[in-house]
Design a protein that fits this description.
This protein is α/β, with parallel strands linked by helices and 369 residues long. 27% of the residues lie in helices and 26% in strands. Bound molecules: zinc ion (ZN).
């Protein structure tokens, strides 16, 4: 029996332990990927410590479980029906899995599959455990198997550490696309210096934003973000008081911005989003992709009159991942800004500490099995 090392969680609130388990064989339409880097989600400790009280509509994998959401590596073996991907290919594994046969899947709308599931994290429907049974491997292991349709082929210019950020980058990219964000348009990123907000900034620059307003609390991080494109980026310090929509209105002759990307996470106050929505121009679109959980008292009548949209956006498609790989190869998407912190498989518990102590979105904590 061939084996591999995998970091597994055995009990709620427990530490990860590195176990020797059987090396899986790829089924006909699967690939076996040797993991070179896997991102560490800032929220992961919250999940593993609160297994029993986690949202019942977001099923977690049965224990023992291999976590690890954003894996990148080298294809080690392919199934018998796989033709265009070969051993040795460098890939990012999109962890968004779907059942493959429901109405949404047959419409090529995998994210809206009722069983949509994050490989190595959590699921979104009662069908998720069935998917975990088929794909129980996250990125905190030496290898994983994944459907070949989940792979984004990486150009040589994208490192594995950078690719381990594709989850956050793709979430931001898909949010911008759902807002029909177009070259020359303007944008407000609420929470620009965070892990997701910095992704939105990099993608908006790549997509030809003419002006980007970004909020944050940490002056140093805001300065660092502005330095990426000083003429196009306008920072707004939240702790300075006042309202962000007034800053945006003043700077746009009262017009407002085309798009708001709301990246604030659970625990952020509803007022922050309500203030940001007021920065939208007539017909503007707000996209929530950060996990803001406070109930929002929205006024539907003014929203109707001003044709405003408030859209929820989750994750991104493999096709959008391919777009990002192409933009990175072309040099329009700059992935050089990340400061990588690497941890071995035996150091996952330290990696979780490091991600909690991160220096805003610039820090990229990865596990390198
Ligand atoms: Zn489906």
């Amino acid at each position: 029996m061939k084996t591999m090392q995998a970091a597994r969680l055995h009990q709620e609130g427990g530490a990860f332990s590195v176990d020797t388990i059987e090396l899986p064989d790829p089924r006909p339409t699967d690939v076996l990927v040797q993991v070179k880097a896997c991102g560490v989600v800032p929220n992961l400790r919250n999940v593993v410590n609160h297994y029993s009280t986690w949202f019942p509509f977001l099923p977690l994998p049965k224990l023992p479980a291999i976590y690890g959401l954003d894996a990148a590596g080298v294809v080690a073996a392919v199934g018998s029906n796989v033709t265009a991907i070969k051993p040795g290919d460098r890939v990012y594994v999109n962890p968004g899995l779907s059942c493959g046969s429901c109405t949404a899947c047959r419409r090529n709308d995998q994210i809206n599959c009722p069983a949509f599931t994050f490989q190595g994290y959590f699921g979104f429907g009662p069908g998720s455990q069935q998917i975990y049974d088929k794909y129980p491997y996250g990125g905190f292991a030496e290898h994983l198997i994944a459907p070949v349709s989940s792979l984004v082929r990486l150009p040589e210019s994208v490192t594995f550490d950078q690719a381990a950020r594709f989850g956050y980058l793709g979430t931001a990219y898909s949010a911008l696309r759902k807002a029909n964000f177009a070259p020359g348009q303007t944008l407000l990123i609420n929470g620009m210096t965070g892990t997701l907000g910095l992704g939105a900034l990099l993608l908006a620059l790549a997509m030809g934003a003419s002006r980007i307003f970004g909020t944050g609390r940490n002056e140093d991080l805001l300065r660092k973000a502005k330095a990426l494109a000083p003429d196009r980026i306008h920072t707004i310090t939240l702790s300075a008081g006042g309202s962000m929509h007034e800053v945006v209105r003043d700077a746009t002759d009262g017009y407002g911005v085309d798009v708001l990307i709301e990246t604030l996470g659970p625990g952020a106050p509803a007022e922050a989003t309500l203030d940001a929505i007021k920065a939208l121009r007539r017909g503007g679109k707000a996209v929530a992709c950060g996990g803001m959980a406070d109930p929002l008292p929205l006024d539907p009548f003014p929203m109707m009159c001003q044709q405003l949209s408030y859209i929820g956006s989750l994750w991104f498609s493999t096709a959008e991942g391919e777009d990002m790989a192409a933009m990175a190869q072309a040099g329009t998407l700059d992935l050089s800004v990340f400061e990588h912190q690497r941890f071995g498989l035996t150091e996952i518990n330290e990696a979780l500490d490091a991600v909690e102590a991160r220096n805003g979105g610039f820090t990229n904590v990865v596990v390198t099995p």
